[in-house]
Design goal:
alpha+beta, 29% helix, eight-stranded mixed sheet, seven-stranded antiparallel sheet
Length: 554
């Protein structure tokens, strides 16, 4: 039996944390709820349920809720194991980046209970899930700061609140399961669907990548994400009368538009073979510097920033990025050292993209949202890193858990990182072309460009546009004034007066204190909740969100 679970927490007088309300909603027709007022009663119920049937407990943010589960397991005699197989053991898959994916426990009677993170399957807030899936309910509100001492009995309003939280996610997950999407994460669901359509091993030779680790790491060094960059000429200044253009379904589009690497790669030195058009190479460049008016579009492998000027060193790069470098940078010398070349094939993703594009275009509500999720989740699975580092829990003398890194190990699933590298490279090429089609370019982020009236010239975009078609740009919005401070940190005032605020790491609870005039480097706003590990579980403590200056200024 599958359940979607949630818990509400409070702080005890001694500073420890406690769950005062827990609910488990069946992911099945009827969506039956079982509600508890202590974590003890919930966990004992789960142990009893496991006696009769296999159970999986989903949590929408296992990182938070799981901290309470791990504390309970430790306090009740369960022991950590890298893989829980013996009675009274438990394990949790926590990565070096503190991402929680799943866990399991084996009861005293030898029955297994599995924990999963529904946020990895549906990466939306509960309130957004209700809207996107057109569900017959919405997320509620309660007083999170109210005093709830030990023995507190939840009010009907509080029980209704947690029931809605669990049932919203349960209904959405059931929609996924009804469509055969039963994997742990959304990218895994997308990959499983694609594999059912093609001869995956023949196309991408994952066994070769698994046994040629040095080649995998070489190509992985060429894999990087979307460009987020502010035009230095307008950084921090107020610009006016602007337009924002978004690229329709950027990653799915480039997956259908271009050729991708297939088969076994060939290693070479000095220059790639002429009969294999796609390659990833290590180059050495001296005094790499951005051309005047061109965007920064090559990543510094040491600082992980987009190179502006004064770069000396080696870069692993796709042939697509190499052409971007030639077109947008000047340099003193450049040398191609070695690389891997690939046979190329176009249309290998069309069966998957066309299926879900059609569903997206012809559906509304749940199926449209599912189609968007499949399209957007697909490519990244090719970039899965087989070299993994996990963490394990250690409890200190005060009963507070700390997560310690285990040694890195190989052995994770391998697909073809070369495919992922070319998907993002093609996307960067489309973005750079969009930037060059802007008059008054101000800012870009992965699949969007923002332009404004500068030096008396009106904002203008000459790229190809269409409101919905893949491979085209669409006008997303207009603004009367804007200020771009750094990557993923800007404010735009729309003609209606609405403020479009982007500030990486800034929650909605802090954005309500932001105005156009106070949005600047060094500004600080209350309302950000930060996790603090306590005995019993995580406490969310209110801190201030501060807009920091860019780490590297040019």
């Amino acid at each position: 039996m599958l359940y979607e679970c949630d818990l509400e927490t409070t702080k005890n007088a001694d500073g420890s944390m406690r769950a005062w309300l827990i609910d488990a909603c069946e992911i099945a027709d009827g969506f039956k709820h079982t509600t508890f007022d202590t974590l003890d009663s919930f966990m004992h119920w789960a142990e009893d349920e496991a006696f009769y049937r296999d159970i999986v407990l989903y949590w929408h943010n296992l990182k938070f809720d799981g901290s309470y589960l791990v504390n309970w397991l430790h306090d009740n005699g369960y022991k950590w194991a890298s893989k829980a197989t013996e009675p009274m053991t438990y394990s949790v898959l926590v990565t070096e980046r503190n991402q929680w994916f799943m866990g399991s426990m084996v009861t005293q009677d030898g029955y297994t209970i599995e924990f999963r993170d529904s946020l990895k399957k549906i990466p939306l807030k509960v309130s957004a899930i209700a809207k996107a899936y057109k569900l017959p309910m919405s997320k509620g509100e309660i007083d999170y700061k109210a005093n709830r001492p030990i023995g507190y009995q939840a009010t009907p309003e509080e029980i209704s609140y947690i029931h809605r939280d669990t049932e919203i996610v349960a209904r959405a997950i059931k929609i996924h399961f009804d469509q055969g999407m039963t994997s742990l994460t959304a990218p895994a669901d997308a990959m499983a669907d694609y594999k059912s359509m093609v001869d995956f091993d023949a196309l991408f030779t994952p066994r070769w990548w698994r046994t040629h680790k040095s080649a995998e790491r070489f190509c992985r060094d060429a894999y990087c994400g979307g460009i987020s960059w502010v035009n230095p000429e307008i950084r921090g200044k107020t610009v006016r009368h602007g337009r924002v253009f978004d690229y329709n379904s950027m990653y799915p589009s480039v997956m259908t538009m271009y050729e991708y690497p297939v088969g076994y790669p060939v290693h070479w030195f000095d220059r790639p073979p002429d009969d294999m058009p796609l390659w990833i190479a290590k180059i050495k460049v001296d005094n790499l510097r951005r051309k005047v008016g061109a965007p920064a579009c090559i990543r510094d492998p040491y600082k992980h920033e987009w190179i502006e000027w004064d770069f000396y060193g080696e870069i692993n790069i796709t042939n697509v990025d190499y052409q971007l470098l030639i077109g947008n940078y000047d340099f003193d010398t450049i040398e191609i050292i070695e690389g891997y070349s690939f046979r190329a094939k176009k249309g290998i993703f069309d069966c998957f993209i066309d299926k879900w594009r059609k569903i997206k275009q012809e559906s509304t509500g749940p199926m449209r949202q599912l189609a968007k999720l499949m399209l957007n989740s697909f490519y990244g699975k090719f970039g899965t890193n087989p070299r993994r580092m996990r963490k394990h829990p250690e409890f200190d003398d005060e009963g507070i858990v700390h997560w310690k890194c285990d040694p890195a190990e190989d052995g994770g699933t391998v697909f073809s990182v070369a495919v992922a590298a070319f998907v993002t490279a093609y996307a960067r090429r489309e973005l750079v072309e969009g930037i060059h089609n802007c008059e008054g370019f101000c800012y870009c982020d992965t699949d969007s460009v923002h332009c404004a009236s500068i030096d008396g010239k009106a904002a203008k975009f000459t790229g190809k546009t269409h409101p919905t078609e893949f491979g085209f740009w669409k006008e997303e919005s207009r603004f009367v004034r804007a200020r771009f401070l750094r990557q993923k940190t800007y404010i735009e005032e729309e003609p209606s007066g609405h403020l479009n605020i982007a500030a990486c790491g800034c929650p909605e609870s802090s954005k309500k204190y932001i105005t156009f005039d106070n949005f600047e480097i060094g500004a600080s706003f209350k309302g950000k909740l930060m996790p603090k590990m306590r005995k019993g579980g995580v406490e969310l403590i209110e801190k201030r969100f501060t807009i920091h200056a860019p780490i590297f200024s040019f």
